[in-house]
Amino acid sequence: MTDISNSPVTEHDSQLGDYFALLKPRVMSLVVFTALVGLLAAPVPVNPVIAFASILFVAIGAGASGALNMWWDADIDAVMKRTRNRPIPSGRVQPGEALALGVALSGLSVMMLTLSANLLAGAMLLFTILFYAVFYSMWLKRRTPQNIVIGGAAGAFPPVIGWIIATGSFSVEAWLMFALIFIWTPPHFWALALFMRSDYDDAGVPMLTVTHGRPATRRHILGYTILLTVLAVGTAFTAIGGPIYLITALVLNTLFLIGAVRIWRRDEDDSEADNFAVERKFFRLSLWFLFLHFGAILAEAALRPWGLGGWS
């Protein structure tokens, strides 16, 4: 992390919304949803009050990770067009305030999740926060083009935590949900990097588009999408799958695979506008991809007590 004290930012009075923005609410919403699906898909019922409290503390932990990430990445956020208006580079929140908020919320969330659920859930939340804030943000992101591949594990842990809240243990099903997010993350972010490459160039972040170029990135997107298709469709035939999930997976993965092939077939001689249109469409589809897969898992879990979910 470099000093941004001399960056050309304007000082503002901090507002509550600025501190909330530090928590990355969009990312937090995905964390909450996937953690809730992991909890509800588990075969052990959870008291609604305990479930609500536990998911709340997972959300706070996710927000803590976001604040720590914004504190550490404030220097590169100030350079990138996509992030230069975030609270720290814009001068609305001081770096020390973001650090203090992230540390405080980390401790609070881990302690309270341990008390409301179980020790293993609290330990997994702590590991997830450290993985994202330290292993990914402070080490991987600026050192290797595999940053988003390995670092993507941080965003894949929430359904595992949700499952542990309910059962107090790990399972194959929990790791299948982890794998869905883990394999989905690289093509999702590489598609973004294809039409935001100048941002990563300017910030000196070794994203695959910067270190290996656009053709290599397109090949990687296709490769990961094929792997994701096999995993996603195969999950339909496990304990968390069923007919609803299978139909959802077949439709979404067909569309996703078509989009990846179109990206892979793009020629560097094509106009930049044409390339961006294909890449943006794939990126937008990727946003729905994860939500709808986990929504289908949730639907199967909701119907299972009535003898309608799954293959039974």
TrEMBL record:
Keyword list, A-Z: Cell membrane, Heme biosynthesis, Membrane, Transferase, Transmembrane, Transmembrane helix
Question: In which broad location class does this protein mainly occur, judging by the first location in its UniProt entry?
Answer: membrane
Read off the Gene3D superfamilies from this record: UbiA prenyltransferase
Q: What is the name of the protein in this document?
A: Protoheme IX farnesyltransferase
Entry's family note: Belongs to the UbiA prenyltransferase family. Protoheme IX farnesyltransferase subfamily.
Its job: Converts heme B (protoheme IX) to heme O by substitution of the vinyl group on carbon 2 of heme B porphyrin ring with a hydroxyethyl farnesyl side group.
The UniProt entry lists membrane topology as: Multi-pass membrane protein
The family database entries (InterPro entries) matched by this protein are listed as: Protohaem_IX_farnesylTrfase, UbiA_prenyltransferase, UbiA_prenylTrfase_CS, UbiA_sf
Q: Does the keyword Transmembrane apply?
A: yes
List its EC numbers. Answer: 2.5.1.141
**Recorded name of the encoding gene:** cyoE
Q: In which pathway does it act?
A: Porphyrin-containing compound metabolism; heme O biosynthesis; heme O from protoheme: step 1/1
Other noteworthy facts: Carbon 2 of the heme B porphyrin ring is defined according to the Fischer nomenclature.
PANTHER family linked to this entry = 4-HYDROXYBENZOATE SOLANESYLTRANSFERASE, PROTOHEME IX FARNESYLTRANSFERASE, MITOCHONDRIAL
